[in-house]
């Protein structure tokens, strides 16, 4: 049937994306005020209808994406290059799935209102690392966005780096802080991140077939489209900069690559993991000895540190970002295994569960650091592609983090996809992506049925992965000599 072809998937997914956007106009993360009559709340019945439409559209989008990946996977399994329709249509499909989301209100998260409010705080002279958006008064820039910031984040200092705050401040200045144009301005930044990711993945992805699959798992991923384009999360910008930096480093331009990763760190700090693996690339290119290893461990970090210092001085926000990196961990998220385990143990073993929870969270981060060190060591020894090692490290960091949001999975997925999309890791990450996209409702809340839907999709996906496993040993086939070129 036509609908099961690559072209059919393109239009089925476009219809799903359109339904998500239309549903979002009634059930999205609409502003409390300042919607200009465009993004306004319409009452309970329209909101319920919009949510149902958005869930239907999301399911169509996920089904189309999944089928597209199955087509690419079967061709890869047969050792054949993807057909012209499947290979050449990836970018056309990306456009069709992205365009419906461009003018929609914020979807699945209220974080963009925090971005706008924090940009306004910079312009208004507030300490963005000492206070939350609630300090903005009624007459201040960004006050309407601050009124729409959700829950705990109202009084939470910014956990983001100065480079991102400069971008947010520029958007607020250009738009006067009005909610609708400011959100659309932040979405333009998200589209820039999308374009950067496409460029980097195409560069890292090898031949046409590999590039098609890598783009499928990275930017066609509903988790990316819904949360980076629809939700305008800055994780897309961090990921795009990391991918770009890694691509440049593998091409011998590690200084410029370290600059990009330094900028990524100035968006969100987990990007710093990439510096370790760029160091591995530098060390292996320099001969792999002790002196080369020292060079790799020191120089990329020094370049990124200079970028961080320059961005901080340029922004004028001070170095408060160094002390706010842990503020997000104080907010409990159900997807964090270490937070859930720590809270459970704390309730069982102590009157006050917080010290136990904090200890378990720290143990989780320590375990993540050990795994990252092991992966870096294997990469340096030539047993693992450094790019794949970075991707797996970011996945491990997310899995053991004290705070986990669905879109955090994109950090590692994008990197793994760029070099090993058709393998066991890529297949599992595809299943997790399809599942986690259901965890959050269009309004940004996390209802129980979102977790139920995610569990159902994960179970179905794992059954599919067991029946139709992608190439075992793909991790070993992902060009482990890349860093030596």
Topology:
Elements: H1 6-27, H2 44-77, H3 84-88, H4 90-98, H5 111-124, H6 143-147, H7 162-175, H8 179-204, H9 208-218, H10 222-230, H11 235-250, H12 254-265, H13 273-285, H14 290-315, H15 337-349, H16 353-380, H17 386-399, H18 409-420, H19 424-436, H20 448-467
Helix pairs in contact: 1-2, 1-4, 2-9, 5-7, 5-8, 7-8, 7-14, 8-9, 8-11, 8-18, 9-18, 11-12, 11-13, 11-18, 12-13, 12-14, 13-14, 13-16, 13-17, 15-16, 16-17, 17-18, 18-19, 19-20
Structural account:
The chain is mainly α and about 475 residues long. It is about 65% helix and about 0% strand. The chain has helices at about 5-25, 45-75, 85-90, 90-100, 110-125, 145, 160-175, 180-205, 210-220, 220-230, 235-250, 255-265, 275-285, 290-315, 335-350, 355-380, 385-400, 410-420, 425-435, 450-465. α2 (about 45-75) packs antiparallel against α9 and α17 packs antiparallel against α18 (about 410-420). The longest helix has about 35 residues, at about 45-75. The radius of gyration is 22 Å and the shape is globular.
A few lines on this structure:
With 485 residues, the chain is an all-alpha fold. It contains 20 helices and no strands. Helix 1 runs parallel beside helix 4 and helix 18 packs antiparallel against helix 19.
Radius of gyration: 22 Å
Helix-residue proportion: 55-70%
> First CA to last CA: what distance?
45 Å
**Structural class estimated from helices and strands:** mainly alpha
Number of helices: 20
Query: How many strands?
Result: 0
- Strand content is under 5%
| Structural shape | globular
Poorly predicted residue ranges: 472-481
Query: What integer is the average pLDDT?
Result: 90
Order of helices and strands: HHHHHHHHHHHHHHHHHHHH
> Could you give a short account of the major beta sheet?
none
